[in-house]
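Lab notebook, bench 4. We co-purified these components, and the gel suggests they stay together. Before we commit to crystallization screens, I want a quick structural picture of the whole thing.
Request: model the full complex, all chains together.
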Amino acid sequence: MTVFDLLDFIGTAVFAISGALAAMRQKFDSFGVLILASVTAIGGGSLRDVLIGNTPVFWMTHWEYLIVVFVSTAIAMLFRKRLAYFRKTMFLFDAIGLGIFTIIGFKIGLKADLHPIICVLLGTLSASFGGVLRDILSNEVPLIFHKEVYASLSILGAVTFYALLQTTLPININYLITSALVVVLRILAVKYEWEFPKLYKTT
Amino acid sequence: MTVFDLLDFIGTAVFAISGALAAMRQKFDSFGVLILASVTAIGGGSLRDVLIGNTPVFWMTHWEYLIVVFVSTAIAMLFRKRLAYFRKTMFLFDAIGLGIFTIIGFKIGLKADLHPIICVLLGTLSASFGGVLRDILSNEVPLIFHKEVYASLSILGAVTFYALLQTTLPININYLITSALVVVLRILAVKYEWEFPKLYKTT
Amino acid sequence: MTVFDLLDFIGTAVFAISGALAAMRQKFDSFGVLILASVTAIGGGSLRDVLIGNTPVFWMTHWEYLIVVFVSTAIAMLFRKRLAYFRKTMFLFDAIGLGIFTIIGFKIGLKADLHPIICVLLGTLSASFGGVLRDILSNEVPLIFHKEVYASLSILGAVTFYALLQTTLPININYLITSALVVVLRILAVKYEWEFPKLYKTT
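Here is the predicted assembly.
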């Protein structure tokens, strides 16, 4: 298992936990918590695979992801209250997940011979659609439409990754730089409440 | 047409009726009623096929399913009030649908050479996603997240089916036992208001 | 680029604008506006392609669609208020989109060797699912379930197109007649508030 795989599993785990926490807030039953955790963690990658035609989708043939989801959900249930203390760590992991899932989506697009611009979109979609599904299933307007910059950082990450891919930089360094960029910008975005520039008047 | 096909059509019909009744409660127009009935009846199987890459999805090449949906919706509209008298029969049919759709999903997974655990999930997904879509489209939090045990019975059914598949038991007997198990447990679950064990504290 | 392509782009643009306007009403951030515009414009065609197995889906290999969406969203943001004056023109374009998307969906179904009845459904699904997604993502009950006749006109359009396909009529004339039929009926439907006949009692 490479460092990249490890980060991938961390991203999956954190997304699963965010889904499980949302489900517990809504008082779903335990089984519902597991479903929402799964959908949040593997929904984005599933949509990506389905749109490309990369089927059976990734978790059907690599079901270690499901184990990660299962364990993460159990942890979320057991340590529900304590997780509040780790809010900052969790947030950091979520930012890592955003960065990693973006890169994975992008790479899978390239492998399918798609145009780099499409690959950028695939990266963003992989990274953010799970959260959208989580919000729809808890009957809320998806956070992504309102929150401080989030999916746009994923686009920036994918573009950066692609730009660095054109250089002679070793791929592992590229992974590192891209993820770090997304993570740092995400931290700054939340700290300073960055918003996507208002391009239209709301009145 | 085998007994299994017959049960499959009954399951489709009952799911369609449940979608149509939900739509009429929400005062959808007649066309909307037909759409919601279709989505409830064939949504689960469609998602299953799309995730596996089993395309065009089943109802495109076996459109007798659409006829079943159409006729069921017409029946639901005509006998809307009388269906209240048949609530118990309907509920029984729905439980049959749950059992049958689980087995179908499981078998399709096996045929696609997927791991038995994935097949179990495919069975559950086939059986329960139509209802989730019905609830999302009527703008409600999916019942499956709150209701007394439902999707978990589907998992149990799929596991049982797989276990019996390892024996020399004729497949038809296996169908019967698995479906009967799901149906009986579902009846007990509703009668005694079984809930999935609370694995986390809600406070 | 043929006249048909042009109409296709007009349909895409109008659907994108309708998504962008809905997002701005909900005060989504600018990025959210772009996402909702995209989903509304290309969601129906994406579902169609995924259900058939026509992957990667159309906009991944023909990304001029994304440019159309992008430009349309920018226009919607810039001229948000002025668009109110063009409500009638917009509505006309939307009706054209309905007609065109229906025909495209139908033709793609035929090309995939599907039964004409399935092709009719594919046409309707291509034309109306984008709007359903738009409504779900803005957390509303899909308009299609309530509005004066809309999706049913798409079905009528697809049936007409298929009927005329059996004649010796040149295909371009067929395009014209079918689209015009859908547009005219849609105008009449809104003007005279046609509703789909009530086939069930609401009490």
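Chain A touches chain B at residues 23-24, 26-33, 35-36, 46, 50, 53, 55-57, 59-61, 63, 66, 76-78, 80-81, 136-139 (CB under 8 Å). Worth comparing against the SEC data before the next meeting. The CA atoms of residues 44 and 125 of chain A lie 6 Å apart.
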